[in-house]
Structures are given as C-alpha cells and as structure tokens.
Amino acid sequence: LKDDAANPDRPNTFEVYADDPETNEKQARENATRAPNVNVKNPVINTKRESLAPHVKRLSADANAHNITALNTVDQVREITDAVSPDTFSILSVFAGRLGDTGHDPVPVMEQSVEAVSAKPQAQLLWASTREVFNVIQADRMGCHIITAPDSVIAKLGGLGKDPMQNSQDTVIAFYKDAQAAGFDIPV
Questions:
Q1: Which end of the chain is less crowded, N or C, counting CB atoms within 10 A of the terminal residue's CB?
Q2: Each residue of 14-51: pLDDT tens digit?
Q3: 80-84 long-range CB contacts below 8 Å, 24 or more apart?
Q4: Does the predicted TM-score (pTM) go above 0.85?
Q5: CA distance 18 to 145
Q6: For the segment 89-109, what is each residue's pLDDT rounded down to a tens digit?
Q7: What angle is formed at CA 60 by the lines to CA 56 and CA 61, rounded to 5 degrees?
C-alpha cells in the first residue's frame, strides 16, 4: 500500500474507527503514512459527542489531507473550518441527505457551509447522502465542490432537463401498460 499502485493518481480515503480521541489521532497518523494520496477520513465527533476538532487541527497542521465526515450543522462546519490548516487539503462532508431524511431543509445549512468553507482555500465542501437528482442541481447552484451520489441517483441523471409534459405522458403510458399487463378492466 505504500506505493498505492492501484490508484496512484487518485485520492484514496482511509477511515479512522477509534472512538477515544487519542487513539483516533494515532490511527489517523498511521493512515496518513500509507500513501501520499491518502485522505484520512475522520468523524467530526465521537460516540460521546466529543468534538474531534482539536485532533483535526493538529493533524491538519502536519499537512495530513483530511475528509472530516458526519457533519450535520453549520456550527460543526465552522468549527472544523477553523481547525483545518489553510495550506492542507481538507474535505468537509455534510450529510445533507440525512438532514432531509429528518425533516430539516439541508439547503440553508449547505449554503452557510459553502460560505464558511470559503475562508480556507484548500477546503472543499462535500454534499453527502444524496437522495435525488435535484440534490445534484442544488449542490451545483450553491457552489459545493463535491457531491457523492449512489448508483440509483446517477442512473437518473440522464433525465435532467426532460420536458415535464413528456414526463406526464411517459408516466401515463407506464400506468396504461401496467393495467394492460395485469389484465385490469373496469366494466362500464
């Protein structure tokens, strides 16, 4: 893994799993030595809700590229943005889709996060947990640097810009074909 022959020109992410902050930091330092293109993936907090920002700050100061994950609030984004070095590549992954799953509108959080992250030239904001194609448009409009999307969303990207009337007709055709295939008949 030292040479990372499989993907030498692409970033690779190695996640840290320790819950206590000191072991977490040791694992992060170990992961950072695996290859020059490794981003250390570290959660924003541990299971006790203790912030890992002080550890991220030390690791970032040592030029360890980071992907700080599981962010869900603007305050977390601001805290981590303050912690990362302006000279070290960092990805801040906000779980926008999970916010939406809990009934919170992710757009204001993401807009404020874009603004907060802009204070650090090497920091990039990632829209995580994408749930629908429109999230891709939202992320792009607000200036997110990265968006992760599952195959189910990627497969629907071909429909971007589809005429709404065509969408209505395609839907009705599908309903009609389903009824025909099922042998439905309503006697009149």
A1: C
A2: 999 999 999 999 999 999 988 888 899 999 999 999 99
A3: 80/44, 80/53, 80/56, 81/116, 81/117, 81/119, 81/120, 81/123, 82/53, 83/53, 83/54, 83/56, 83/57, 84/56, 84/57, 84/60, 84/120, 84/122, 84/123
A4: yes
A5: 28
A6: 999 999 999 999 999 999 999
A7: 120
